[in-house]
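Students often ask why we bother encoding 3D structure as a string. The short answer is that it lets us treat folding as translation between two languages. Here is a chain of 343 residues written in the first language.
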Amino acid sequence: MGPGTTRARGHGVKPPPAAAALLARVRRPEPHDHADAVREEIGAWLAASRVLGDSPRAFLAQGHLDLVARAWGDVPRGPRLAAAAKWLVLTWILDDHFDDQWIGRPTAEARRTVRALADLLGDGREDRLAPGARTAPDPAGDEDALVGAFAALWRETAGLTTPLWRARYATHFRAYLDASLGYLEAGAPEGPVPTVPEYLHQRDRDGAVLCAAGWVELAHGLDISDEAFRHPQVADVLMRFNHVICWANDLYSAPAECAAGNGKNLLRSLAVHEGLAPGAAAVRLGALCEAELATFEFLADGIARGPSWPEEVRVLARALIRFTHALIRWTATAARYRMEAAP
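And here it is in the second language, the structure alphabet:
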């Protein structure tokens, strides 16, 4: 994620050997009992939205709906699961706009889309997209299909969530947009490789991982208070959730990103600024991923089994572990990272 999300597609190259060690310790969650029906429903929505033109087949071949089926295999099929799945898919499509500068396509459309979405969510005005809001844009008349789909999905989600969830999600999504737009406006990816502190600061914001936590909450029908989210233990779990997903993505996508000339990857920062050979940098990053994953699992499990926590917070902790396992397994094996660069 990234959460979204991730920032580079494969170039026919394999991840470093250190990635296999991480994958070996991550269990593969069982798929949803109605996985085929979920895939069909979301695939039909995606085709109807025309976000990807006449056919979303190439995008769906990357396996995003397989991720949905395993990340939320324990969630009853219904409108909440569907909405969470749509947010995951829509955010990944948006992420592909950010990838455009790295695969040789013009970035003007991506810049325009990001600015339009930021405007929709700017200054706490997100509830003007709620059902019945007279200022909500008409997705059928919007010249940008992605912006129209975003507005329509927000209205759909508003009927399933509280104002508190929407305000928190809008804040996280705006942060993701701001950080990603910064990458677009920075220009060529082959610029200076950021130092490790610089990279970590940026990566915490551009991966849409806190948006993914919102999808988890939405799928499970949870209503977590801000007080619970700000609790130091929960905040620590969410920080490590962010780290694990972003760093694991960097580990698996590093060969593709380096082949594309993109130096904005934690493995690359370790190699350039810590004086490590590429293989040693991969080993270091793999070890960091394993250590952070173990800590995340330990802390989240402590909340999940802690009798003093509200049941909704315990459910969230368990669900974050499952989502993380599903995403790491998907990132390591998805066709997305084995594809050749788009022309």
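Translate back mentally: Confidence is low (pLDDT under 50) at residues 3-13, 133-143, 339-343. Keep this in mind for the problem set.
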